[in-house]
């Protein structure tokens, strides 16, 4: 059966079209594509994998025509990063408030 394994960076996209035996899993197809050697930053314990935009398990069998996509982790949005900083600051202020109350 014919499948494609895809990985995209901000500046490039790699598509590996290949013939694989029936029953091949997404993980096996990725290994056969050699994308793990070409892009050592791919870590299948971190990177999500999908077929045509839908997340799938690495152990799931493929079907003819599937496009296995390896997704990069998304960077944090600036708003989310500020939110985390604000939350840490609120926690720090609460601790200091409790500490000064217990001392006084």
Please identify the structural class as seen in this structure. alpha+beta
What order do the helices and strands follow?
A: EEHHEEEH
CATH level-four homologous superfamily name of the largest domain: Beta-grasp domain
Distance between the termini: 75 Å
Task: Describe the structure using short key phrases.
elongated; Ubiquitin-like (UB roll); 22% strand; alpha+beta; 2 domains; 5-stranded mixed β-sheet; 104 residues; 37% helix
Q: Could you characterize the architecture of this molecule?
A:
The structure is a single chain. This protein has three helices and five strands, in the order E-E-H-H-E-E-E-H. With 104 residues, the protein is α+β, with helices and mostly antiparallel strands. A hairpin with a 2-residue loop joins strand 3 and strand 4 (54-55).
Give a concise summary.
Helix content is 37%, strand content 22%. The protein is built from 3 helices and 5 strands. The protein has helices at 26-33, 35-38, 78-103; strands at residues 2-8, 13-19, 49-51, 54-55, 67-70.
Set out the fold topology.
Elements: E1 2-8, E2 13-19, H1 26-33, H2 35-38, E3 49-51, E4 54-55, E5 67-70, H3 78-103
Parallel strand pairs: 1-5
Antiparallel strand pairs: 1-2, 3-4, 3-5
